[in-house]
Amino acid sequence: MPRKSAANAKPLSDARVRALAAAGRPGDFLDGATPGLFLRVGVRGATWSLLYRVTGHGGESERGHTRKGPLRRLHLGDFPAVSLQKARTLALQVHEQAGGGRDPATPAQTQASTSMQTLDWLVERYIAEYATPRLASAKIGAWVLRRHWGSALGKRAFTSVTRSDLNTHLLKVARSKDHGPGAALEARRWIMGVFNWAIKSEIAAVNPAVGLFGRDDLRQTPQDLRPRDRVLTLQEARAVYRAAAHMPAPWGDLARVLLLTMARLGEFSRAELAWFDREGRNLEVPGSGHKNGDPKTIPLSGLAYDLLANQPSGGEGRYIFSTSKGVKPIYAYADAYANALRALSAKELDRPVTHFTIHDFRRTGATHLTALGVREEVVEMLLGHRIRGVRGVYMKHKYVEERREALELWATQLADATRP
Predict the structure, then answer these.
(1) H/E stretch holding 412
(2) If we measure between CA atoms, which residue out of 307, 243, 245 comes closest to residue 276?
(3) What's the pLDDT at 65?
(4) Widest distance between CA atoms in the chain
(5) What is the DSSP string of 206-273?
């Protein structure tokens, strides 16, 4: 394809067009008098083509300006049936239509829908048609896509988004103090899913998410994106438990419950009031709310039970932990509150605390309970892991009361006021 700019090309003449066509030497010859117009010569003849962009098909810029869409090529006719003068006239008509937001190559009835096919539009189709019906993590994925991609590239036509655009934003997320490499890797995973689905569904012809930056590119320090092995000491865990009491609702109580139960974030952040079995003193997580798809009973220690029982119902929604009176659940532990929890914990200890995450509570509890003599299979069940091998096939005992006893032991360790 020739250069899209004819700034350095000389205007074609009728004589030169006839000579080029007669010579039959393959090539593209720009007309310096008409932007984007060129004569394509082949061994079987010569044809007129035009390169153009459609205003509005590139979405909107960050400042709200309308972007032009990707470069397109339109066949105007064969020479000599279409003369140089006729080709120039047709080219100017196409540019006029494209400047007004209409693509001459697209039927008129589809123009409106084409101009609305932004990245936001593609993401919402992916969520509704693929993620929600098929993926247990659909709600998390929707949150990640809307948060990281909607604000950055959502108003752009998805066909105008390039790999460079995606990589530039991934690096921005990775370098952000509010997000970091882990968030960038998660954003990468979900946007790749969107475009892979779009290709398979024949919605997109090009996949810009192929070859995106990976772990090594997004890592900001040698420790970033390595397998987690952080285990809080008992002293640190007690400090976190005390610090969480000074956090605003619902973030402080949510952190305390997760530390007390060693549960996954989603099992409580999206917990519904109907899951709370007050009589049995358990949280009954259905398969849809659990990572491996199996229903899970989470026994509650006395402290954990009291935290759940004392949550305000709100009366407007079904979720236990919520910032919208129960109408919407919490999909992630907000970065600002995670940072605040780390700072308050350091204040409790009167010294800096090595970085930890909410997920590290699971490894911390499992490590200390094992050290306290709790049986391995009980700890495995507490973590909600499937038991593998022969034991997993034949051992169907759920260890509910054994797990409750272990969690009472863990609660006693965390709340021990006689120790720092």
Answers:
(1) helix 400-414
(2) 307
(3) 63
(4) 100
(5) --TTTT---HHHH-SSTTTTSPP-----HHHHHHHHHHHTTSPTTHHHHHHHHHHH---HHHHHT-BG
Strand, coil or helix: 64: coil
CA distance 157 to 55: 11
Closest-CA residue to 283 (of 137, 138, 400, 139): 400
- HSE toward the beta carbon, residue 316, CA cutoff 13 A: 10
Return d(Cα 31, Cα 9) in angstroms, integer: 7
Q: 35-77, pLDDT tens digit by residue?
A: 899 999 988 889 999 998 887 766 555 565 667 777 888 888 8
Q: Which range among 82-91, 201-210, 362-371 shows the weakest confidence by mean pLDDT?
A: 201-210
Q: What is the mean pLDDT of residues 184-195?
A: 94
Contacts of 126 (CB under 8 A, 6+ apart): 145, 193, 194, 197, 198
Under a CB-based contact definition with an 8 Å cutoff, are residues 205 and 156 in contact?
A: no
Of 33, 66, 65, 64, the closest CA to residue 50 belongs to: 33
Write out pLDDT tens, residues 354-377: 889 999 999 999 999 999 999 988
Question: How many CB atoms are located within 10 Å of the residue 359 CB?
Answer: 14
CA distance 63 to 57: 16
What pLDDT, on a 0 to 100 scale, did the predictor assign at position 215? Answer: 85
Query: What are residue 272's DSSP bridge partners?
Result: 319
* 105, 75 Cβ separation under 8 angstroms: no
CA-CA distance, 141 to 130, in Å (whole number)?
A: 11
Tens-digit pLDDT profile for residues 149-173? 988 898 888 988 999 999 999 999 9
Q: Are 251 and 344 in contact (CB under 8 A)?
A: no
CA gap 42, 23 in Å, rounded: 9
pLDDT for 420 beyond 60:
no
Percent with pLDDT over 90 in the chain = 49
Helix axes of 251-261 and 360-371: crossing angle, nearest 10 degrees: 40
Radius of gyration of the chain (CA): 30
CA distance linking residue 234 with residue 255, whole number of Å? 16
Q: How much is the pLDDT for 325? A: 86
pTM for the model:
0.58
CA 314, CA 316: separation in Å to the nearest integer? 5
